[in-house]
Amino acid sequence: MRNNLCSESCGLIYRILTFFVVFIPVFSAPVVTYSQSDESVITLGVSRDDVNRGRRFFMGLLPFDNRHPSCVSCHYLTAPDTLNWNPSALDLAYKVAITDSASFYRAIMEPSGNVISQAHAGIELTADDIQYIKIYLDNLSRTGTEPLRPSINRILLFLLLGVILTLALLDLIIFKKIKYKAIPALIFVAAFGYQLFMLYEDAVLLGRSPGYQPDQPIKFSHQVHMTENQMDCMYCHHTATTSKTANIPSTELCMNCHIVVREGSRSGRFEIDKLVRAHEEGRSVEWIRIHKLPDHVFFSHAQHVGAGNLDCMQCHGDVENMHVVRQVSDLSMGWCVECHRETKVDFIENEYYSIFEAFHKDLEQGLRDSILAVNVGANNCSSCHY
Ligand code: HEC
Ligand code: HEC
Ligand code: HEC
Ligand code: HEC
Ligand code: HEC
Ligand code: HEC
To answer: What is the rounded distance in angstroms from the CA atom of residue 199 to the CA atom of residue 195?
Structure first.
């Protein structure tokens, strides 16, 4: 009886199960590659085991009776989707690579600075343990963080589900090896359903297109400087009223204040240290450009902010409440043209428009009650295209 029930169907199910049990762990196991690091490890005169041991300390897997939070819980290895004020593991690694062992030990066990003292309080590690972490971080500064693997696992899982549902379907229609039709049907529905779910998840991610918001080399926050310290946009972007482009401030300008302010309440000293180092080495900070029109378009800040008296916010959104600047407007031609059709220009007070005599007469005689940007030629092709 048992044989009748199971001999055929169990065979297939057993095979599918083995497939899962054997292959899924193979696909999803974190693959640690050492192709690059092998060289660096050898030149350092330490072994791969030392690097691995350091990694375990960093991940909080060692020591076994660990009671402090793991380093990686603050110093992330992957990019988070919200701003993490703690230095990332890679940021840390770059700094540690130029730090000697004694300073590294002090940064962890006898830190100076308010933020780091709080963050590193209660860490219980021996000098040896810490040396392993340094080896791991030194190595990380050469190899970089591992590329994200889950996406590959995801593709494999998707394909695997495809194979399973094909098998189930083939059995259902052609081979008919499984006696109870419900079994392949169920497998088919489950595999197909999960595939649909995966597609749905990806589609949701695709549809959500956040404005361009790259991570900058220093965690400079407009919110900290504008909203919390009441600075004015023009203090840093002072060419916005007079020139085509708004300038990005130099390190010298930042140093006006940061010659004194050496610790932030969120990032501690780490980020401001980067600024100070750049300044001392005479380097400029390589900020990543966010807003960029194609070369064939002419746009002038002076025209809009100076003559047009527009607020930065109208085009850039609520920058003063952003920790990381995000491009809010799409900078499309439609966006420019639309605004020119809707926005009145301050005609009477503005000398810039004194040449438009006809409009001035119309205004005086009450033939028009306002002049829009489009009326002064803002939507002529040649205004924006050379
Ligand atoms: C609770 C969060 C937290 C944990 C846990 C943590 N750190 Fe930090 N760490 C920070 C913050 C915040 C800073 C930057 C503060 C500053 O520079 O003033 C920092 C800075 C550092 C620095 C840089 C010091 C320098 O020279 O600028 C090193 C090195 C470091 N951490 C190593 C570690 C290691 C190793 C561990 C695990 C044993 C660890 N951290 C655990 C929050 C944390
Ligand atoms: C303390 C100096 C400072 C002040 C004040 C300041 N900014 Fe900035 N701004 C910067 C720096 C540095 C960058 C480049 C790094 C970044 O994008 O965060 C920047 C970048 C920007 C960008 C993106 C530029 C690009 O690459 O496309 C915009 C837009 C901007 N600021 C608008 C404003 C506005 C609006 C205000 C006033 C609410 C303001 N800023 C005040 C320093 C400042
Ligand atoms: C007018 C003075 C002033 C100028 C100019 C200025 N800052 Fe600051 N900055 C401050 C103050 C004050 C703080 C401390 C805010 C806090 O942590 O509460 C600060 C904090 C910071 C922090 C740490 C934020 C935190 O909370 O951890 C960074 C990073 C920073 N500034 C970078 C810059 C850069 C880069 C520039 C130049 C583009 C700049 N600052 C220009 C006054 C200034
Ligand atoms: C009418 C819309 C508009 C207004 C108002 C405006 N901007 Fe811009 N801003 C832009 C556009 C468009 C760009 C991209 C320019 C390019 O790529 O040539 C830009 C770029 C920038 C940049 C990057 C550097 C550059 O010039 O390309 C900064 C910084 C900036 N704006 C700051 C400001 C500040 C500060 C104000 C307020 C004083 C302001 N903007 C007002 C539309 C505007
Ligand atoms: C928030 C509304 C707004 C947006 C968005 C805007 N503009 Fe304007 N623009 C104005 C106003 C108002 C004027 C008239 C003020 C002036 O002439 O200085 C103007 C004037 C101009 C002029 C000068 C026309 C002339 O001959 O006097 C040009 C060129 C121009 N805009 C280009 C652009 C481009 C390119 C974009 C898009 C990248 C853009 N503008 C986006 C409001 C806007
Ligand atoms: C107010 C400014 C403005 C005016 C006026 C304007 N353009 Fe544009 N144009 C733009 C901007 C900004 C872009 C870039 C759009 C993008 O990158 O998506 C653009 C892009 C284009 C492109 C490239 C195709 C594309 O979508 O990228 C063509 C072609 C073009 N414009 C033709 C014209 C013609 C023809 C006129 C006159 C009827 C005109 N434009 C008037 C701002 C303007």
So the answer is: 6
